[in-house]
Write a structure and sequence with these properties.
With 106 residues, this protein is α+β, with helices and mostly antiparallel strands. It contains four helices and four strands. A four-stranded mixed beta sheet has the order 1-2-3-4, with helices on one face. It is globular and about 45 Å long. It starts with a helix and ends with a strand.
């Protein structure tokens, strides 16, 4: 991920400012590349997981959906970041608020 790693600080800064500190905390991001999927496949092969944790227990489903929407819209609103991700070969970005599930943004 050399082309994107130089811009990871931009992602860290953007994501750390989304939620008030008493709501959710940005943990970081992880790049995942599925080596078992051929590069010529139409299936997403390389994706980024943007990870957050809620300060208290998991919120109700409606608040969780609103939080996913807020993160995704923030990412989509940063055209330069989306271009950098695309140029670096990312097919998808997902958001996670716990270790059990993730939600696709794009």
């Amino acid at each position: 991920m050399p082309a994107f790693s130089a811009h990871g600080e931009n992602l860290d800064l953007l994501m750390s400012q989304i939620f008030p500190q008493d709501q959710a905390t940005y943990i970081g991001y992880e790049s995942v590349e599925r080596e078992d999927i051929p590069a010529s496949s139409a299936i997403d092969r390389k994706y980024l997981i943007v990870d957050f944790r809620f300060e208290s227990r998991q919120p109700p489903v409606e608040q969780l959906q609103a939080s996913v929407h807020k993160v995704c819209m923030t990412l989509l609103g940063d055209r330069q970041l989306i271009r950098q991700l695309s140029d670096s070969g990312y097919d998808m970005v997902a958001v996670a608020f716990d270790r059990r599930s993730q939600f696709d943004c794009l």
